[in-house]
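Weekly sync notes, structure subgroup
Attendees: PM, AL, DS (notes)

Item 1: joint prediction request from the bench team. They want all two components modeled as one assembly rather than separately. Inputs as received:
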Amino acid sequence: MRTVPSAINVKKCVFPVLLIAALSPRIAAAALGEPETSVQTEMARLHASIAVSEHANYRLHELHLTSGTVVREFAGSDGKVFAVAWSGPAVPNLREILGQYFDSYVTAAKAPHSGHHHLQIRQGDLVVQAGGHMRSFAGVAYLPQALPSGVSVGDLH
Amino acid sequence: MVGMAVLGVQARAWRFGVYAALCLPLLSCGGDSGGAGVSSTGSGGSTPAGANVVDIVVDAGPTSTSPDVNTLFTTVTVCVPGTTTCQTIDHIQVDTASYGLRILAPVLTLSLPVQATASGSSLLECTQFVDGYSWGPIALADVRISGESASAVAVQVIGDPKFTTVPTNCSSIGPAEDTVAAFGANGILGVGVFAQDCGSGCATTVDNGSYYECTSALCQATTVLLASQVQNPVTLFGTDNNGVVIQLPSVAAQGAATVQGFLIFGIDTQTNNKSGNQTVLTVNPGDGDFTTVFNGQPALTQSFLDTGSNGLYFNDTGLAQCTQSNLTMFYCPSSPQTLSAVLQGQNAMSATVNFTVDNAETLGASDPSFVAFPTLAGTYPTANTFDWGLPFYYGRTVYTAIENTMTAVGTGPYVAF
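Output from the run, pasted for the record:
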């Protein structure tokens, strides 16, 4: 039986993250709208493992977070992330995932809408659709203008 | 146009003054008895009574200036553990898609003891909702609802001014919902299929997104034993602790100003909560979801019953969406549309449900005091879900059996109707 206090476990988890972040200077934290190379930084910040797959019109980075939530980042041929999607028991760190779009997301999410279990935002060049309930959350954020031809919103999950 | 404001449902549209601007002049000019409104009571059958029954109501909410639609409330008493120092709080939202009791700090006059972690820090929670988070300590309270009681229940106090430093990982999921105005209720009573709000994930994973241990200087993510997580208080009642029955009357198509029904604790524990011939749909033991088959779409495997959703939310490209700017996620068919879906449990049992969708922009046109609408429906943001919100419950008796508990017709987690 391990008797290590949880606080030490926390430090164990955090240390390699800080290390990787330190070795990756000045890479933008944002995924959405950013070069897909930032996904690597994000993976570290989010304590995630990653799988990458090639699709006809995009490259998919799939991040498995320790919370059990899966984040999928869609990058086009220009190497930029045009959509991010998530599903799982916890809402992921949207500040990291939405990057430069997070502040406008928060502003829009404060606007009048119905209930705590769904959210639809269209603000400027950002669309966010999210839903779910305690223990089960899902959502997608994308940049409609950046959607590669041949990719539909229905593909983004 | 009244309907637009009423449906600016959007509770918060009203809070931002849309309601006052559009509805009040009509109220004062209408000359009818709109304020008296239409109310619906009972459920067709006998009125349940007993120590395990509490009234529930759909009304305009805790502040008259911020009416929500299709929002179900009850009244809960909380006490400092082991004392007779108690407070009764009305307009606690009844939510079958969350678990545990949460109270907004501004309405709480008691000082409830905050749970300490093994290291002596305070235990706090970042409760995640789709549209934001609620931050506050986990406190202990004796909880009384009607004649039922539970001692030293872990509850959350949302927006406690003693704990204002929100960890970045918490505030990084969206806006704060830490006030009555932002929350739309004085608190929320989660009486869904689970015994704890988070479950085993938070007992084993540090970065669970929910729980933190905090000193005055620092908060860090932490695991929490199941017994210390926010508890569905029903599971801690001495009796009638295996689930709940929610009974609401039918609501007229044009709507109602109030709807009164009953929340009955226990299933097959008293004469007033016996299982009948309802269909039992067992749900996913991890997330509480089941499958809906609708309109030829791929199986909607993340479907759920939810008194905390104010409409039926699903995707149907055959239904016209509203065009008014704050209602575009709702449906606005030119005439009422009757549709049908099949709900399937993990036990392969199924039930067909017929429902009607009407024009969200005209709901409430007959009376601006209306806040209950059985035909309110809108789009769902993701592809694999049918969210059966409060309109589903109108005119039904719905059973919610808690995980790992027995009833006469099966073991929870299940829903039945």
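Discussion: Chain B touches chain A through 72 residues (CB under 8 Å).
Action: AL to compare against the crosslinking data before next sync.
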